[in-house]
């Protein structure tokens, strides 16, 4: 299963092209990135016979996205089903809707874009803010990872979010948590 890196538009659009081969590969802070997840509002939409092109605005910029309507599967018998699923996804992408997009990072005519694997309309209005928090925490984690001491690490976190130096976890509690990595346990 591939990992989709949560990115803001500003981060996605500033990715460095590591190899300009076909397909190109991208890096962020020296780490390879091939798949991304973004959350934002659909601000532009253009439907053609073979694809849907749309822009997702997350407040830090606009991410170009392309959803292919007829090239979702290599197997001939699955092609019809996959194309129908892509058409259904395309129908949900409407102007003004808050969407979560996951897909492969590609470039077309020198512009970084997401070739959509799946797109979901978000019903929770907080989804965009939570995505921003996840992105900021991941950025902080990436920066702190290089500076982190080899011994114990103490991190304080906002309500409902907990950073463990190994992974990000959501807390079910409404109170702030403090994570102290001594034996891998966290205490309230």
Automatic annotation (TrEMBL):
Q: Which GO terms describe its cellular component?
A: chromosome, telomeric region; nucleus
Where does it live in the cell?
Chromosome, Telomere; Nucleus
- One Pfam family in the UniProt entry: tRNA_anti-codon
The residue ranges crossing the membrane are none
- Record-linked InterPro entries: NA-bd_OB-fold, NA-bd_OB_tRNA, RFA2-like
Superkingdom assignment: Eukaryota
Major localization class: nucleus
The question of whether Signal is a record keyword is answered with: yes
| All residue ranges annotated as the OB domain in the record | 39-120
Secretion signal span = 1-22
Q: Does the keyword Disulfide bond apply?
A: no
> Keywords, A to Z?
Chromosome, DNA-binding, Nucleus, Signal, Telomere
Recorded GO terms, molecular function? Answer: DNA binding
Protein name in the entry: CST complex subunit STN1
The organism is Musa troglodytarum (fe'i banana)
